[in-house]
Design goal:
With 509 residues, this protein is α/β, with parallel strands linked by helices. The protein contains 16 helices and 19 strands. Its EC number is 1.2.1.3.
């Protein structure tokens, strides 16, 4: 359990319900750096025995975990809603993603395939094998406190690695619950260790563990700034981390788009989970011919969104994850400039009884709620165009030519997700080809993932690593080649190939 991984400098911290800050969801003692290093040391010792467990049996463990999560789906979703403020319907979808991930990797336990490769030499066979890396340290964020950890933990464990998991301090209760389900599903004690720690402690403990040779892989989901630090640390130890970072995800609306469908997609992309997804919509890029009509429809739809208590079925989005998330979002609002236009309601920032929102359900003063904000007139030179806002804010921009739309979709430097609304197949495929995002949707939102599809980004959104599906296996295994020579004499590969070529040419002539 988590308490086994605490260090000597124990200190408590609390996780509060963001819909009602009076409600303490859990109180945990945070580890010091020695605690994280000790957890890595224990996981490192356990790795060889876990790797010797046949991969199909490790797949059965993933199946067991998925079954237990399914049996506890409603309870886990309710805990997600309570701890991070995600509407209950969305929380159920997140838990289903954990189940889907476990289902997928049950099969991969029987498909950790290598290859038999033909040799250029006679009487020689070549083989390739996937090998586990060793011990992984996985650091996850609060906005998807169950699904994203599962994206890392399930394939890492399936491939024969051991894991030290450091969840967000804002989602410690969900982490404890998910950790117990993994343990109950058959994951041995030291094969998966849970450590609660703050960011600086995690960095210090990870640095020590890397120096001792205890960690062979880092997985990190979080901000681009923090990802840079993790990447630099990994690079000093000649490692390539798996990074899933921020996004400024564009949604292009062409002049032939179905505007009603585009509005629906933009609303969901921008304001689901209160805009706190790495794939949340950053900017709508609308053709000038339809810009004004789109903006009118979009603003009206945003005005009608119901905000409030995330336990209520009518709610579109609930609170931000916590007070520090609200403070960061307020910083994003400071990027609004005089040449911008607040479309629809002009109320911004925190929703309170003194700054109310029409149709709000619940007690606005009890939680951490924010007004949805639509900012029109954003230009490519604006800092708002280049900055991830991570909250309920969407920019709207205009374009004239397809080349300009592509430039705006790529120009902010992020490359996680993008969407285009068009009736033209040619336009859709051309956008896919020229867009730098790792994931592209056509006539669909910028958000959403499936367990068997690669997930990840480029540029400021990541280092090209991918999660989910068969592609994540390359993050948690290395390729080993083997050559078996049964000629009974030394064969010197390329040095002897010339002789073979000459002999072959002679015989063919």
């Amino acid at each position: 359990m988590a308490e086994l991984n605490r260090g000597t400098a124990e200190r408590p911290t609390v996780s509060r319900n963001p819909a009602d800050l009076r409600d303490v969801v859990t109180e945990q003692v945070l580890s010091d750096a020695d605690g994280l290093t000790a957890a890595a040391r224990a996981a490192h010792r356990a790795q060889s025995a876990w790797a010797e467990t046949p991969a199909p049996l490790r797949g059965r463990v993933a199946q067991n975990v998925g079954r237990l999560v399914a049996e506890n789906k409603e309870a886990l979703a309710a805990l997600i809603t309570r701890e991070v403020g995600k509407p209950y319907g969305e929380a159920l979808g997140e838990v289903q993603e954990v189940i889907d991930t476990c289902d997928f990797f049950l099969g991969e336990g029987r498909r950790l395939y290598g290859q038999t490769v033909p040799s250029e030499m006679p009487d020689k066979q070549l083989f390739t094998y996937r090998k586990p890396l060793g011990t992984a340290v996985i650091i996850t964020a609060a906005n998807f406190p169950a699904a994203v950890p599962a994206w890392y933990l399930v394939p890492a464990l399936l491939c024969g690695n051991t894991v030290v998991w450091k969840p967000s301090e804002s989602a410690m209760a969900v982490a404890e619950a998910l950790f117990r389900l993994f343990r109950a599903g058959g994951v041995p004690e030291d094969v998966l260790r849970l450590v609660h720690a703050d960011g600086e402690t995690t960095y210090a403990g990870l640095e020590r563990a890397l120096t001792e040779g205890l960690v062979q892989k880092i997985g990190f989901t979080g901000s681009t700034a923090a990802g840079r630090r993790v990447s630099e640390l990994a690079g000093r130890h000649l490692q390539s981390p798996c990074l899933e970072l921020g996004g400024k995800n564009p949604l292009v609306v062409t002049d032939d788009a179905d505007l009603e469908l585009a509005v629906q997609g933009a609303v969901f992309s921008g304001f689901a989970t209160a805009g706190q997804r790495c794939t949340s919509l950053g900017a709508v890029i609308a053709h000038r011919a339809v810009h004004d009509e789109f903006l009118t429809r979009f603003s009206a739809a945003v005005e009608d969104l119901v905000v409030g208590d995330p336990r209520r079925d009518e709610i579109f989005y609930g609170p931000l994850i916590g007070e520090r998330y609200l403070e960061n979002f307020r910083g994003s609002l400071e990027l609004v400039r005089p040449h911008h236009t607040l479309s629809g309601s002009t109320a911004t920032g925190r929703i309170t009884s003194e700054s109310p929102r029409k149709g709000f359900i619940g007690d606005p003063d009890a939680g951490v709620y924010a007004h949805p904000t639509v900012v029109a007139g954003v230009l490519p030179d604006d800092e708002l165009y280049r900055t991830e806002t991570f909250g309920p804010l969407v920019s709207v921009m205009a374009y004239d030519s397809f080349d300009e739309a592509v430039a705006l979709a790529n120009g902010h430097g992020y490359g996680l997700s993008a969407a285009i609304y068009t009736r033209s197949a040619g336009t859709a495929f051309s956008f896919r080809e020229r867009c730098t995002a790792g994931m592209v949707s056509v006539n669909n939102s910028t958000v959403g993932a499936e367990a068997h599809l690669p997930f990840g980004g480029n540029g400021l959104s990541g280092n090209g690593s991918r999660q989910s599906g068969i592609w994540v296996l390359d993050q948690f295994t290395s390729w080993q080649s083997m050559n078996w020579d049964y000629a009974g004499t030394l064969q010197r590969a390329q040095m002897d190939v010339q002789d073979i070529d000459a002999d072959l040419g002679f015989r063919l002539s």
